[in-house]
């Protein structure tokens, strides 16, 4: 009777803990769904660890191709900060694909069609809250791959060489034979058993260290396969093609799944008694290493399939992130318009055999602002040739250039513009703006600058497809006379069919020298007493004010310095000579 009572108590206790665990798991899921609901359209304040940051470009690095945004342009535009603002993702696949998407603008009719499909998904997710949140929860369960990108491991599988399980199998057989030998000749059997046991344990620790890093990526592959199975239950018509392809790909990994039952245990165990016992069994019999070798062969055989699954999964979450980012843009957004582009990526003139087939046409943006500014001043621009912008320091020239460039890039990557309306071509985008001396390479600022400009000229000469380029303070790294002469010729060389160049300068002389090639715009400021005000409004024409010397007084420079500088400047403007 007492034994039965004890068993009943144990059973009730087990049932209680089971129910409590299920209830706690349900509460966790509910809290996470509430977080997902609240996070949509909100600013994300994620903290990124250094290891995670190094893994974000993983998908991009594995899919380099012509036409992607180069490092100079990416850094000039501060695209890392825009990426972090936009990164409303829950999985590694999603955040890596988002980074890749932002560096891979559409340049052809086929890629433009892909943008339209992206727009269809983004709009659908924007409008269907429940389905969107169900999908985001699945992405949360998929999670991140750890400190590094999955591609950091998959790209180095060859370092493991050819791993065979035959040696481990032979040792296991010998271990079992030694147990049988104990029944016949106990001393010999025990000696053989302990020798084989020690050899197995020693070799296990060595091999386990070699494969342990790869278990992280294999664990993520297994979660991708689980995600592919679960995703079939969702009702998302705009993703039906992707879900069907994922299902077909997932079915190719039967052997991987079976081997993962033992091969992945070491990477996922939580220290419970059963797991600890299994660790000792693996140490003796190498069962997990044998399964790992099977998984390794399967992964090597299906690298292209894994890559495609990451692309499909990441591409869809990229659309979810963009939908959330759109909702967070309190200053508004619009979808871009790309007029006059045919399926092959050429305009109508190309089809007619026009030698000016690569002409960019009109770039027209209304209500433009920079997405990183909390309270921006919106501007508009409409041009079909180069734009030269003048104005004093801090008046808004550089910010305007970055806003136009970022808007064009976002139009061609995530089909979303921080503006009221956007119409333009499919451009190759280049900048030469926030450059620095290359101390390690021993190059001065001027050398770095002319190299950056040369890459733009080379791109224009090598490919007739449209180019949109931005140059801030042309050739600032040299003396005035040579700067104006060289800047004039460089900017004139960028005035040609198929190129739109936006340039900012302090050199008013360029507005006269280039007035036949570039439209002039300026920013201006007002000095009132001991204060200066910038309205950041783009104005037509060249800058007419000269306030650099007056700013010295506002900062507190001696009046004698200011008076002498004013006299020198006025005398130079009158005579053309410095005295």
TrEMBL record:
<dbReference type="InterPro" id="IPR045076">
    <property type="entry name" value="MutS"/>
</dbReference>
<keyword id="KW-0238">DNA-binding</keyword>
<keyword id="KW-0812">Transmembrane</keyword>
<keyword id="KW-0547">Nucleotide-binding</keyword>
<dbReference type="InterPro" id="IPR000432">
    <property type="entry name" value="DNA_mismatch_repair_MutS_C"/>
</dbReference>
<keyword id="KW-0067">ATP-binding</keyword>
<dbReference type="InterPro" id="IPR027417">
    <property type="entry name" value="P-loop_NTPase"/>
</dbReference>
<feature type="domain" description="DNA mismatch repair proteins mutS family">
    <location>
        <begin position="384"/>
        <end position="570"/>
    </location>
</feature>
<dbReference type="GO" id="GO:0005829">
    <property type="term" value="C:cytosol"/>
</dbReference>
<keyword id="KW-1133">Transmembrane helix</keyword>
<dbReference type="GO" id="GO:0030983">
    <property type="term" value="F:mismatched DNA binding"/>
</dbReference>
<keyword id="KW-0472">Membrane</keyword>
<dbReference type="GO" id="GO:0005524">
    <property type="term" value="F:ATP binding"/>
</dbReference>
<dbReference type="Pfam" id="PF00488">
    <property type="entry name" value="MutS_V"/>
</dbReference>
<protein>
    <recommendedName>
        <fullName>DNA mismatch repair proteins mutS family domain-containing protein</fullName>
    </recommendedName>
</protein>
<feature type="transmembrane region" description="Helical">
    <location>
        <begin position="173"/>
        <end position="199"/>
    </location>
</feature>
<dbReference type="GO" id="GO:0140664">
    <property type="term" value="F:ATP-dependent DNA damage sensor activity"/>
</dbReference>
<dbReference type="GO" id="GO:0006298">
    <property type="term" value="P:mismatch repair"/>
</dbReference>
